[in-house]
Amino acid sequence: MRYYLIDEGRFTKEALEEMPFLTAILFRMEHPVSPEEIVRAGEDVAAWFKNHPDGPPVKQLFVELIMAGLERMKVTPLSTIPDDLQEVVIMLAARVEQWAQEYEWKGQQKGEQIGEAKILTRLLQRRFGPLPDWAQEQISKADSGLLETWSIQIFDAQSLEEVFTTRA
Asked: Most distant CA pair in the chain: distance in Å?
């Protein structure tokens, strides 16, 4: 029996995308950069098996590789995993849009929170002078609701400590 050693690092992503071999698609699935890349690789696998109906019985392996790639990227997994590879690709294509919207929303929320923290910090510095470490730490750990509360309390507070006292 002979085994062949393939140096997958020798091939660029673009070169692998042009190769019509199941091995090349496998390499692409092992190192996805985005959910879209997994969908494209899944489409290529489905097309390969369609063109090679008597090919090796490894369709389930590719379904599992798709799921493992999604897990590595820490995206919300599919709720069910169909047995048919083409169904997996269709489900993935639909989910990629949803994931993109989730990432955009989370990024927007985080950006707003960072902006609120910066504004509060500037206002507090203007009113009370340089902020001690404990105040900066509280601001960095606070959620948007607490930042908003503190930004309102800044107007009535007589001291920096009073700003960070939560009022009912």
From this structure: 83
